[in-house]
Specification:
By secondary structure, this protein is an alpha/beta fold. It has ten helices and 14 strands. Helix 1 links the parallel strand 3 and strand 4. Bound molecules: zinc ion.
């Protein structure tokens, strides 16, 4: 068994920036590839990393904001042609992610919706999202096989909604998302503003344990999930930078309810007792805004383990 972590993209927020791909990570477990989030450019980053789309086993979505899901259609549709075994299509790519929330969040001043899009189902979950991707690309999926020898489109993807872990006053018990001989994946709910549900994932392999925070404020559920992990891949924001660049008042307060400030993330890693902290999902995302060495230095505050500022294409072979 071997396990390798690869950061495919490390930018936070939907706005494209030069020099960083949108948030996406891969975990290769004994040659099976698992992708966590499909931000901007993730299919290209996947192939740039030398990964094989025929070995793409499953995708895990932390939440359904566009910066985490925007290139899911490409991740499924571009490699369709290689999804074939010797005599039949490869098993479907599984897409795991949050279910529909119970209700559409209302919001309050100064941030309110002017319009509700798709009011008949305003907060689609992961299975809804994948179903709608297939519906939107039905032309491609129905017509391309008439001109090229394509695998059965009906075998391309299976979506699975993860039951929303419920929060009480105490830390949650993680939900087991799936488990087989080489891998167990579990999830807890984290706190990301009005984006409910938002999830963090823990991957336990024979070699190691890697936790992906998703987008969250400092969160006890995450700390509990990450306890004893070898690597914690954590999103970070620099709220002070944002303040100095015009995000103030209520807008800054909202931002603090969405993300973990870089000065807090070392404390999260220390409380979880992880060996290594790898930073990702930078806000600001522009590489020239804050140098990686500065992110790493500030992220390490309060943490005695190893802290790395992740960058696109970073690879880490993981062994105990
Ligand atoms: Zn995000």
């Amino acid at each position: 068994m071997t396990t390798e972590l690869i950061l495919l993209g490390t930018a936070g927020a939907p706005m494209p920036v030069a020099g960083r791909g949108g948030i996406s990570s891969a975990l290769v477990v004994d040659k099976r590839v698992f992708v966590i989030d499909c931000g901007r450019g993730s299919p290209s980053a996947f192939i740039d990393a030398g990964l094989d789309f025929a070995r793409l086993d499953a995708v895990f979505l932390t939440h359904l904001h566009a910066d985490h899901t925007g290139d899911l259609p490409g991740m499924l549709l571009y490699p369709w042609g290689v999804r074939r075994g010797d005599h039949r299509p490869l098993p479907p790519i599984r897409v795991y992610g949050p279910s529909r929330p119970d209700a559409l969040p209302m919001g309050d001043p100064p941030f309110e919706r002017a319009t509700t899009i798709h009011p008949e189902q305003p907060t689609p979950g992961t299975t809804d999202l994948v179903e709608k991707i297939l519906a939107a690309y039905a032309y491609h999926l129905n017509v391309m096989p008439l001109d090229a020898n394509m695998p059965d489109a009906g075998e391309l993807v299976r979506a699975i909604d993860i039951p929303t872990p419920t929060s009480s006053g105490r830390a949650q018990l993680p939900v087991t998302v799936f488990e087989d001989a080489g891998l167990r994946v579990s999830a807890v709910a984290v706190t990301h503003g009005h984006a409910v549900p938002a999830l963090a994932y823990r991957f336990d392999t024979a070699d190691c344990c890697v936790v992906f925070s998703g987008d969250t404020t400092a969160n006890d559920n995450l700390i509990s999930l990450a306890t004893g992990a070898d690597v914690l891949v954590h999103s970070v924001a620099d709220l002070g930078y944002l303040k100095r660049h015009g995000i103030t008042g209520a807008a800054l307060e909202r931002m603090a309810g969405l993300h973990t400030d870089v000065t807090e993330v070392g404390g999260v890693a220390r409380r979880a007792g992880v060996r290594e902290l790898i930073l990702t999902h930078y806000l600001p995302a522009e590489p020239e805004a804050i140098p990686n060495r500065e992110w790493a230095k500030r992220g390490a505050k309060g943490f005695d383990g190893r802290t790395i500022a992740g960058s696109d294409g970073l690879r880490r072979a993981l062994v105990r």
